[in-house]
Amino acid sequence: MSAIASINTIPRVLIVDDNPNNLGLIVDHLEGHGYEVLVALGGEEALERMPFAKPDLILLDVMMPGIDGFETCRRLKADAETRDIPVIFMTALSDLDSKVSAFAAGGVDYVSKPFQREELLARIASHVVLYRSQRALSMQEARLRAEVATRRAAEIALRESEVRYRRLFETAADGIMVFDLDSGRVVDANLVCCQMLEIEREGLGAMSLADIPLLHEQNDGSEVLATLCRDGQARWEEWSWRRPDGSTLSVEVNGSSYLAGESLLGQCILRDVTPRKQAEAKIRYMALHDTLTGLPNRTMMMDRLNHQITEARRDDRKVALLLLDLDNFKTINDSLGHFVGDALLEEVATRLRSVLRENDVAARLGGDEFVISAGGLHGEEEAEHIAQRVLEALKPAFLIEGRSLNATSSIGISMYPQDGKEAHMLLQAADTAMYKAKKSGRCQYRLFSQDLSIEADRWHSLSNDLHGACDRGEFVLYYQPQVAIGTSKVVGTEALLRWNHPKLGIVEPSLFIPLLEENGRMIEVGRWVLTEACHQNAEWQARGITGVRVAVNISAQQFYRGDIVSSVRTALEDTGLEARWLELELTESLTLEDSEATHRIMGELKALGVKLSLDDFGTGWSSLGYLRHFPLDGIKIDRSFVRDMLEDQNTAAIVQSVLDLARQLNLECIAEGVETEEQLAHLRDSHCQVMQGYLCRAAMPPEEAAAFLNEYFAQNQAA
Ligand SMILES: Nc1nc2c(ncn2[C@@H]2O[C@@H]3COP(=O)(O)O[C@H]4[C@@H](O)[C@H](n5cnc6c(=O)[nH]c(N)nc65)O[C@@H]4COP(=O)(O)O[C@H]3[C@H]2O)c(=O)[nH]1
């Protein structure tokens, strides 16, 4: 009965019989013996009730309307749910065939009506017990099978997850290490971690944190690691150490802990952040340095300067700020290209570094502007001394791409505290002093003074007034005659630019041409000069003043950046002047660069039919020899040579050799700035062909020049 009890405390019997009168006695009898009895009045009803009835035994009448007992039993046996429920047939039939049919239909037993109650009870009890114990067994077996299957599935899942997590652990880009937090024993570490910490994987099991040398380098790294894990917060710590190849490894360390059985384990993740650190360092470097020269940039320089000022204030010392600008850089950059320009700037930076004292700072502000700040000084003399050293360092020619280039510098100096208490004031004062140095000629330095500041203010207001001066028609051309020394004939005029300032009157070109060049407007004004000079000459020719060419100055900016060839062509076309009456005076510094660009442009200008001459000859550093390379028609000896040639024998010798060479090369020689009869006589004796200077006339406004030429022509015609 224990098996029965374990399934269902009260055994349940379903009686299927179409005659309820037969049932009353059996039901009472069974119920009296502890059975729960259900009744169905036919096969169909019995089958319908099966899913809910769930009997432990069925007493089945054979002869019933509808489907009989045999068929009902067959159907019960055909269904997996009811197949095992024992069926005892009850019938009045007592023939052998019926009994055989009953067993064939799946019955377990057979009782004949009228029943022997005790027999019926005994049969029912034995089958119910058998059925119940079988059911209990199969249920237990099913449970066991399910348990085994669940365990097996759990094992498989565990194995799969182990494989998955091991793979994650092994292939993680970060280093992962697990260790016992109490003993420090290393439990596991992936390959990346071993490589980072430079430990062998094989010996891991016997290792503790204290055995890892690299952790000691981190200021008791094993302790830090343990604390990090114990803290339990995912906190990142930054470490860096030197690798055997000398490079630096930067690592972020994160720790956490967890209980595994009895052990408290620490788990740390080591992330290699070297590339990020390097990128950050690079960004920081780039933010503070000039990428071309590697010198500090403006931001860093201002920072250092502020620092030097603070120290000087504390120690009662001075700070000097030297602002440098290369005298010839724009021309070199324009004519030889940016590649050469950049290489020159790099070389200049190297030379500047070589003259610095330990605490001086050299920086590049941009373009060809450099700055040096020197702290801890006692007086201006020390600043001047640095300036002299810089000028000396930059003096020797630079050898770049097989070319020898000169790039001297002009330096403006300002001093803390007298010229400014703050960095930006010092920079402004040095800038003003540098302008002065530039105006005084190449390779100079100037200290700032208040007078300079006033001059600089004037300079700036002039610069403002220049805006739109061309459009307002404030420019005029003056003309200075050029006279053949042998015949006294006027062979040309030089067009010289003047600015008719509304308040200041006529302003000399030395005051405003540098300003025009600085803001790139010389190109536009130069075009106007070309057209105006051609127009004037064409008009004079129309008035009978013939055979007199006009010379126009061309600046480096116009030559290289202003599309000079098309400007000249347009000026000639617009004014109708024949090209042979136009001469272009190119400054020596411009042609100094024996570049492909210079040759090409000169060739194209020559092809137009204009004359080319070299202005200010002798003021550059070039050798006379390079004259041969260019398609020139003439050279102009600079007025400084003419001025000194009678007093200084060396100058006289230079003038003589220039004249000799010009003759050999079939170049016309014009002497500029001739002021005295003695100078003229000397030039005549030296076979100079043409003179220009106050001795004949200074540059004149157009009407005066026209009157001069008219008078000259009238006299000449009369002669
Ligand atoms: N001491 C002295 N000086 C004399 C004598 N005879 C002439 N001069 C001056 O010498 C300068 C000659 O012009 P430059 O060498 O081409 O030098 C010119 C030229 O480089 C530049 N310049 C003038 N006009 C133009 C122009 O239209 N375009 C460009 N790009 N530059 C110009 O400005 C410079 C200065 O021009 P200016 O002031 O007109 O100065 C002129 C002229 O007035 C003399 O006997 N003694």
Molecular structure report:
The longest helix is centred in the first third of the chain and has 55 residues, at 117-171. The protein folds into 4 domains: 2-141, Response regulator (Rossmann fold, 3-Layer(aba) Sandwich); 172-277, PAS domain (Beta-Lactamase, 2-Layer Sandwich), CATH 3.30.450; 289-456, Reverse transcriptase/Diguanylate cyclase domain (Alpha-Beta Plaits), CATH 3.30.70.270; 480-498 and 520-718, TIM Barrel (Alpha-Beta Barrel). The strands form 5 sheets. It has an 8-stranded mixed beta barrel, surrounded by 4 helices. A 5-stranded parallel beta sheet has the order 2-1-3-4-5, with helices on both faces. Helix content is 49%, strand content 22%. The protein is an alpha/beta fold. It is elongated. The site of ligand C2E has 24 residues, from strand 19, helix 17, helix 18, strand 21 and strand 23. It comes from Novosphingobium endophyticum. InterPro entries: Biofilm_reg_signaling, CheY-like_superfamily, EAL_dom, EAL_sf, GGDEF_dom, Nucleotide_cyclase, PAS, PAS-like_dom_sf. Residues 12-128 form the Response regulatory domain. Residues 317-450 form the GGDEF domain. GO terms for molecular function: cyclic-guanylate-specific phosphodiesterase activity.
